[in-house]
Design goal:
Layout (H helix, E strand, L loop, with lengths): L4 E5 L8 H18 L2 E5 L5 H7 L5 E2 L15 H7 L3 E4 L8 H13 L3 E6 L2 H8 L5 E4 L11 H4 L1 H14 L4 E5 L5 H9 L4 E4 L1 H4 L4 H9 L3
Parallel strand pairs: 1-2, 1-8, 3-4, 4-5, 5-6, 6-7, 7-8
Helix pairs in contact: 1-10, 5-7, 8-10
The structure holds SN-glycerol-3-phosphate.
Amino acid sequence: MSSPLILVNFKSYREGAGNSAGQIGSAAELVMQESGVTIGVAPQFVELHPFCRHYEIPVYAQHIDAVEGAFTGRIPAFTVRAAGCVGSLINHSERRLTIAEIEACVEAAKFNHLESVVCTNNVGVSAAAAAFSPTYVAVEPPELIGSGISVTKANPDIIRNSVAAVKRISPEVKVLCGAGIQSGECVKTAVDLGADGVLLASSVVKAKDPEEVLRNLVSLL
Ligand code: G3P
């Protein structure tokens, strides 16, 4: 089995911008090299190209738009690909899309050779997202996002049942889980429940020492 993915979303946190973003990038690169565990990052848009150039880690956009041409203020999938990204989040809880937009974004990602990470809020939506055959479905109960309470402890069933629902629809689609992920124990529990990795933000991005948190996250794999 390939390495689980630990995907760190910088959101719009101030700590995820400028020099502090760079510190997280360096820490992710170091811990990935040392541990062999894949650590991806989803920095803020203006940092995508520099991140792709400076760090030997997979870089994801936080969102893409399935548009080309006369549209202003959008993030075309092909631009994300040209910047050097490997993929994109789609339909994050903090950037919700319609079902038609989700499908269009997954198709735009495929067309541009980008991985798609479709975020969902429950088991039913996980199953619906799997029907589009994205690379990943990432299930995150919205009430636990940013709470410091790990989904792996508060709601392991949503992980177990999302994995089962997704595999029933599209066995090749991988599953991530997120919300409150903060330790190696959370990551190990997620993997034991059938997940292919985790999506997380605040525990790394807002940490005094992101490298220490990243080391802890990979420690039990
Ligand atoms: O994208 C990851 C996110 O929504 C989870 O946030 O801060 O609970 O790890 P957090």
